[in-house]
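Morning!

This is the sequence you dropped in the shared folder:
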Amino acid sequence: MSHLILVRHGQSEWNLKKKFTGWVDVDLTPKGKLEACKSGELIKNQKIKFDYFYSSFQLRAINTLKFIKDTLRDKKEPVKAWQLNERHYGELTGLDKDEMEEKLGKKKFFEFRRSWDKRPNPLNKNSPYHPLNIETYKNIPLENIPDTESLKDTYERVNKYFKEEIQIKLTKENILITAHGNSIRSLCKYLFQLDNDQISKLEIPTGNPLLIKFDSDNKILNCGYLDS
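The structure's back. Tokens below.
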């Protein structure tokens, strides 16, 4: 049996401000750091020895993993993968969610946030929020940097990496991934074979580890959140 734990990063500075964050590289709030530490304690109680740690390229996921690893006292070097980044929200990036819901109406707002294949308009390449202008992404090939993404785009990016780099290890090894609401939503759609309607309604809580157990044939035995 092997284990996969998925953790959405703790509360970020822009989660607190209710802004569309996407690829903007913001850090954790004090509450987010506490959530990450609590995640670490919940995971530690499982007494699982991890073979690999993965995070996205983004500070909020990297630091969530750091707090967890500090709690576990595990010094393995994590793998950082831009493919596990949050969905890019295009021109919505940096905007206030409550204001946009009021402006667009609930139905249109939900479409932009959760529809399967609808992309917001592209973010202007001159915007300081565009990944091209953020130091974190300077070494990512230009063709891999998006201007906007749908959930479908995010799903394809995340799961291509998961299938090529991570899934094969789950036949016998234990893995922990810290990532984001939409990248974890994408992994759940693939792992649990959710349809497009189910995925649009799936909520991923911050700082609550999702433990998935696999048999030797990569079939899911059971799963559940560690914080009830």
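Headline: The beta strands are 2-8, 52-55, 79-80, 175-179, 210-214, 220-225.

More detail when I'm at my desk.
O.
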